[in-house]
Design brief:
By secondary structure, the protein is α/β, with parallel strands linked by helices. The chain has 10 helices and 13 strands. It binds S-adenosylmethionine. S-adenosylmethionine binds next to loops.
Length: 317
């Protein structure tokens, strides 16, 4: 019996289709979490540095735009919190001015939640924190059970990992749950030239390559499969016109892989691609289009000094 039946089902479905694909949410096992932390420290991965600068320098202004009543306790919910190193600046600023709030980091990775909880409580012993493990899509309803006012954080370009239709549906679903005046802080990577974007997904040390290939290592480990990682290569693609960075694993040779719990062999042609991640880059126009007919409107926008990244404040109408 395999521990994660959904993962097995998704692999079976994704490998049975043409083109083959696996969801990027499966990057994040213990090794994937660690590799992603290394990616965030890479000089080429500008996304983290840019958003970190926004939080470091503009947290007070961001908090003002939340328009929170200081006497009212609220919930700060972060979807896909990861290691929370950027949010840390916001939490510090909120605690300094004595706001009353509970911080609720949500992540599919329990390992990430353990790390973030330990780290933040060491930094801020008075922080009220309640981590929630789960997929954002599945836990939304539960998160909105309480009557307390909410501020939602969805940063680190996480929305970019959803295709446009799914992103549209997710933001609409979020909007339905928010009450008038409540805010969503949405961190998005902006459209920019190929030279800058591609390097972020193809660093010189090969950490993004290892991160991508770890998906196959994870399938080997959890599903007793026999992928030979040497026979696959990391392939990132991006054009500024389309504005979507895509990562693939490319089969170097014609080969077959057996997945034991499925009792099934999957064939790969030489040069065949498995799609593993999309990372949509945004501008105001694309965001407006995704928000069309929703009850969310753009209220504010905070950018880094290079104008590479934007944290939008969306407010429920
Ligand atoms: C790209 S990282 C960004 C982390 C963090 N937001 C940041 O800005 O540093 C994505 C995070 O979202 C989590 N994640 C990915 N897909 C998810 C899903 N469907 N539901 C919940 N968490 C998810 C991953 O485990 C990971 O911690």
């Amino acid at each position: 019996m395999i521990e994660n039946e959904t993962f097995l089902k998704d692999v079976n479905e994704g490998f049975s289709q043409n083109p083959k694909h696996i969801s990027s949410k499966y990057f994040y096992d213990k090794i994937g979490d660690k590799l992603f932390q290394q990616i965030m420290d890479l000089p080429e991965y500008y996304l983290t540095n840019c958003e970190m600068e926004i939080f470091r320098e503009q947290s007070d202004a961001i908090i003002s735009s939340f328009e929170i009543n200081k006497n009212q306790e609220f919930e700060l919910i972060e979807l896909g919190a990861g290691d929370g190193k950027k949010t840390q600046y916001l939490l510090e600023a909120l605690l300094k001015i004595d706001f009353k709030f509970k911080y609720i980091p949500v992540d599919i990775s329990q390992n990430s939640l353990n790390i973030i909880s330990d780290r933040l409580l060491k930094l801020f012993p008075n922080l009220c924190i309640e981590a929630k493990q789960g997929e954002y899509f599945n836990v939304l309803e539960e998160l909105f059970n309480s009557k307390k006012p909410k501020i939602i954080l969805f940063i680190g370009s996480n929305l970019g990992n959803l295709n446009d239709q799914v992103a549209h549906n997710f933001l609409h679903q979020l909007a339905e749950n928010l009450k008038e005046g409540e805010k969503l802080l949405l961190g998005l990577d902006l459209i920019k030239s190929k030279e800058i974007v591609l390097l972020a997904y193809n660093d010189s040390q090969g950490v993004t390559r290892d991160f991508n290939l770890n998906l196959l290592a994870r399938i080997n480990k959890e599903m007793d499969a026999d992928f030979d990682l040497e026979n696959f290569e990391h392939l990132p693609l991006y054009t500024e016109e389309e504005g979507v960075a895509k990562s693939f694993l490319k089969s170097k040779i014609r080969q077959s892989v057996f997945i034991k719990p499925l009792n099934k062999t999957f064939d790969f042609e030489e040069g065949e691609l498995i799609s593993t991640e999309v990372s949509r880059k945004y501008n105001d126009e694309i965001l407006e289009k995704i928000l069309q007919d929703s009850s969310l409107k753009i209220q504010d926008k905070f950018m880094d000094s290079k104008n590479y990244f934007a944290d939008y404040i969306l407010t429920k109408k």
